[in-house]
Specification:
- The structure holds two protein chains of two kinds.
- In chain A, about 5% of the residues lie in helices and about 60% in strands.
- By secondary structure, chain A is mostly beta strands.
- Chain A folds into three domains: about 5-85, Immunoglobulin-like (Sandwich); about 100-210, Ferric Hydroxamate Uptake Protein, Chain A, domain 1; about 215-640 and about 675-744, Maltoporin, Chain A (Beta Barrel), CATH 2.40.170.20.
- In chain A, the strands form ten sheets. Chain A has a 22-stranded antiparallel beta barrel. Chain A has a five-stranded mixed sheet with strand order 8-15-16-11-12. In chain A, strands 3-2-5-6 form a four-stranded antiparallel sheet, with no helix packed on it.
- The radius of gyration of chain A is 27 Å and the shape is globular.
- The model of chain A is unreliable at about 85-95 and about 305-310 (pLDDT under 50).
- Chain B is of the alpha+beta class.
- Chain B has one domain (about 5-300).
- Chain B has three helices and 18 strands.
- Chain B is globular.
- Residues about 1-15 of chain B have low confidence and may be disordered.
- The interface between A and B is large, with 83 and 87 residues.
Chain lengths: ~750, ~300
Amino acid sequence: MGVAQGITVKGIVKDNDGNKLPQANILVTPDSIQIITDASGRFNFKSSSGKKTVTISYTGYETFTSAFSLRKDTVIRIVMRQKTDELKEIVISSNRFLQSDQLQTTRMSSVTLGEKEVNAIPVLGGEADLIKVIQLLPGTSKGVEGSTDLFVRGGAADQNLVLLDGAPVYNTGHLLGFLSVFNPDILESVEYMSGAFPADYGGRLSSILDVRTKSDLPDKTRIQGNIGLLASRLRIEQPLIKNKLTVWAAGRRTYIDQVVKLVHQRLPYYFYDLNINVSYRPTTRDEIVFSAYTGEDILDFNGLTGRRQNNDVTSNFDIGNSTQSLRWKKNLKNNWNSSLTLVRSVFRYTIFNSFEDNKLLAKSNIEDIGGKWVLSTDSLQGLSFKGGVEALHHRVSPNIISTTGEIAQLLESTSTTMQTCLETSAFAQVDDNLSARWRVSAGLRVSSGIVSQKTYINPEPRLAVRFSVNERTTLKASYSRMAQYLHRISSAAVSFPTDIWYPVTRNVKPQTANQFSVALQHTIPKSTIFISLEGYYKHLDELVGYREGTNLFLNADFESQLIQGNGRAYGTEVLVKKEMGRLTGWISYTLSWSQRQFAELNHGEWFYARYDRRHNGAVVLNYQIGKRVSISAVWEFISGSRFTPVIGQYVVPSPSLGGFNLVPVYAPVNSVKLSDTHRLDLGIKYRPRMHSHFQGEWFVGVYNAYNRAAPIGIFVEPNGDGSYRYEQPGLFGLLPFISYGFKF
Amino acid sequence: MNSRASLACYPLSVMDLNFKNMRRIRNAAELIMMLLTIACTPDPLPVKNIPVLKSEMVVASQVLTDQSVIVMLTKSIGALDAGKDSDLQNLISRIIVEDAIVTITYGEKTDTLRYLGEGLYGSIDLPIAPGQSYALRASSPSNGEVSSNTKAQEAVPFKTVEASLYKEQSDSLAQIEYSLTDPPGKNFYMINIQRFSITQDLSSLINPRIYTHLVTDENFDGQVFEEKFNVLFQRYHLNDTVVVSLTNISEDYYQYMKVRVDNRFSVTSFATEPFNYPTNVTGGYGFFNLQKPDFRVFVLK
């Protein structure tokens, strides 16, 4: 009896310990329906009546197959069994988001990380850091050593959209970028995309980093924390109504300023992060989550004695972000899902200096308010559909400078006019199996940037295709067009957290990028190894720069100095990732080129981008020796970045004719490559107690074990005998760390 | 233990405990500080493959009177060949160009400048007429050729000028009060203040500390202009000798000086914007100007 596809099948996939299994692959034949479970292990699809076979696979578990006769709406609960041969050894999966799960999808150029994976890797100061882990992935280059800037597939540092529960985060670093603002204890999942962007993401050219905080509903109070050299953190989670309402709060602060007081020193700097989250499930179909973040870096030289007695100099610098996000997810009828997110994000910094009557106050501020609504289904006659709208209003005060006293003679009080920009977009995307081997994901995003006297509109098509060579090998290709309406103006030499964010205007156009990529993916299930070989080409238009000689520091009138140009980037990326077993980790390698061209710079000729780093490789390993001990190692190699050193000088009489000035002559833009960098980090984790209620863990290790400099530039230094030399200094040498984590 | 003994022990053991806790905390703090100080600053890496700058001629010029001008020719050097601490005389002797033929053409006339020594070429019979165009050519067998064009600027002297000591709470600055009569048309002015001392070291004449104040006449075209300002970032004392100069400069030179003044905020070489300063010399560096400064010397009271 032919019946239209109107029967709903829902279900949940768990293991025999009751753990929900996200991203489990579900294949329904003969309908050729292929879906994956969501983060809660749930799925649903529509089908016609008749005999069906459902096959569910999940790495590390025996494949589940069952035949049944479908006549009416049905709910299925599936319990997967772990593979028996893997029970003989400790099965370590530091990441429940496995790369191999994306094999049969159209996903490429993306990685999903979990809390455990981020925490397993030793980084600067022993403080687990999400951004530092991302920098070890293929296609991702870093800036100055230690900074949180990402240069993805030839893009600039401002071309990465970092979202915290849907709210944009503008300043991702503490300590001038040496640590990210993300407390590792709050992470549920981190999805990182450098290409093949789904249609519901946009606003930046080069990458999306979608950070989601924990929102599950525990059944008891949970406390976890960590005491480290640089900072300590604590998270407390409390269920309020069982299976319905939970609240947690997490804080992190550096306390080195307090520690040095005990040894009679002074360090007037500290940073903190504070996150809170309220998760509420009023019904089985509704999930409401409110999350908020605030964090700040404070440098406070208040009241330090100046050169003379009773003569105070005050110097304060504080920089910080805050975000708020309210998300409502609802399972609608007929397998439709709705997700509405409202966000607010603020980034600001303030510099205040005073000496006697002289006062200097400089401020910058961005406030975003917006929302995003997504409607989706996996059961639209075999298709998956996702569509929606998004709007984000930016209020930007790039530079407000107020001076009094003598300093006002040198630096007048000025302020850049506050700019507002409304970014809107509408998007739709369809995923479909064209045949047993071919799957396509086609979408369109239409975005706009609306400012006074000008509206920019950009269509952003998205296409991804997958061809299954066999059940373990796929070929993929993608095309994405991206548009960006907010730019960060940085110095050519180095970027600072105080760089200026500036929206499009009548004169400053949106940046755009077109990216093509192809990939070969292969898994070796027995060894749980995932291999990816990917190539890309990206062309960037209307990149923002500034005329030579422009001083951005405390400059409120820089728009007239902005220029726009082009960029191109291409490369090959290799990723080999082992995802389960005693030994886990990955090897990544990228071979890439990145260039820029501005009519007003370098005589209009193409030149290498600052962070054009030819070879970029990393070996990241984690080995579980026993139940209590694991060791980790990171070895990273990266070609030197580009630099513009002084190569000569000439002498001219000083303007007053009372002496001579040495005027530097620089090499052509970014024409010199710094020395290559390589670094080894080692760590060992030891869990002295394995009680069911309390778990403690020591993490000891060393950053940069053989103390090699990672050059930040090329500078001329005196030898002391009247001669001079070039040298390339680094920032961080061998840095031991020790920390203690606990959970109960 | 009797009660009196136990009472005697109790406050002592509490104090002892507090002291031990404080000592533990102190020891932990010292351990943390030690771990952090174990961290080494790595040795800088050597540098290879830096391009070598091709040496080119550098032009500087100065009007002495209405009929005389001096042009200084030197050559550019490598980044490692000199620095702020270099010996000035040795440096100058290494870079001067002595074999050039230097001409200045104005209207239909061409004047060949005479070599005066120390890289200086001059003429005492070259009329400097404000608004007139002048073309410089310098040709050296060993250093190549350079050329430049400029217009002579009208000399604008101080109408009045005074320099005095200005005392703040804890600082004493130099205060300059001046006036000038601005000719009609677009004009750009440069005022320099430099301190001199009898005991001044020659090495201090390399990159000397000069305060430069730039002014445009957009708000006072063709009028008398008065201004008072303090010389910042240097402390002055009673009886200091300062030289104050006023020069009417070309717009090119104004833009060049503006960039140099703006980049004084560069905190370290690490963050300094790499930027090659503009020049109006073709085939070389420097500036060919025909502008005449008005110098005044003051002893601060």
